[in-house]
Amino acid sequence: MGVRFGDVYVPDGDEARRWAEEELAQQKYAEAKPTWFDRLAQSVWDFIAGLFNPERTANVGPSALIIVSVLIVAALVTVLIIWGRPRRSQAVRAARTALLGAEDDRTAAQLRADAGRLAAAGDWDEATVLRFRALARGLLERDLIDPAPGATAQAIAREVGAVFPAEAAPVRAAAVSFDDVRYLRHPATADTYAQLAATDDRLSALRLGAVPA
User: Fold this and answer.
1) I need a surface site. Which of 114, 131, 170, 192 has the fewest CB within 10 A?
2) Beta strands in 63-122 (DSSP E)
3) CB contact set of 213 (below 8 Å; sequence gap of 6+)
4) Which long-range contacts (CB under 8 A, 24 or more apart) does 108-115 make?
5) Where would I find the Protein-glutamine gamma-glutamyltransferase-like C-terminal domain in this sequence (predicted)?
6) What is the reported pLDDT for 31?
7) Residue 3: beta bridge partners?
8) Positive or negative torsion for Cα 179, 180, 181, 182
9) What are the residue ranges spanned by the domains of the chain?
10) What angle do CA 181, 183, 186 make, to 5 degrees?
């Protein structure tokens, strides 16, 4: 046990070690540790600095140093490209979470299933909204469209029409149904939902290779 001197408590050896372990286990220390990339970059930098050390360059020609430096820079660029891809993918996924004015991370399949349940319950308005989001999400998941952040239903319809020209008119009609319900508060019907769902089903089955150029 520790010893107290007035207001000061001095822990014994075991208690002090436990306190230190608990302190170092906190997240802030883990985040401060250098990553594998930090260590690699430092090692490469140390190696490059060592190449230009006067004691080493005496036996190495300037041409050899230039060649080695170029190779190292090329290797670093390659590592940066490869290492940066996961972060870019995460950024793209995060940007695509917001779709048609709503933060929604459901997949196209989940949106279709939820829309189907609402349609079965007779909630045609919400079913129509979700089904058009499913249509857009499905094309995003297949990397067939890449709408700008905040793109409207009509903007998405134009992109889809550029990819599948034969579906341009039905997709525009689906976008109108979405806007009517979402913004104009016009009630949807079983017929408008059925038409939208049929368009979504056709688009889900289409493949670029099967579309005439």
Assistant:
1) 114
2) 98-99, 102-103
3) none
4) 108/134, 108/135, 108/137, 108/138, 108/141, 108/204, 109/134, 111/137, 112/200, 115/197
5) 131-199
6) 54
7) 10
8) positive
9) 8-95, 103-210
10) 40
- In this structure, what token pair is assigned to residue 17? 């070690």
Q: What is the pLDDT of residue 162?
A: 94
Predicted local distance difference test score (pLDDT) of residue 164: 95
CB count within 10 Å of CB 195 equals 16
- Alpha-carbon distances of 196 from 160, 178, 189, rounded to whole Å: 14, 9, 11
CA distance 106 to 110: 6
Residues with Cβ within 8 Å of residue 51, at least 6 apart in sequence? 57, 60, 65, 68, 69
Low-confidence ranges of the chain (pLDDT < 70): 1-13, 15-17, 19-34, 36-37, 48-66, 68-69, 79-97, 209-213
**Residues 154, 45: Cα–Cα separation, whole Å:** 52
Structure tokens at 137: 């999400």
In one letter, which amino acid is 176?
Answer: V
Q: What is residue 92's predicted lDDT score, i.e. its pLDDT? A: 46
- For the chain, where are the E strands, in sequence order? 3-5, 8-10, 98-99, 102-103
Q: What is the pLDDT of residue 41?
A: 73
- For the full predicted model, state whether its pTM sits above 0.85: no
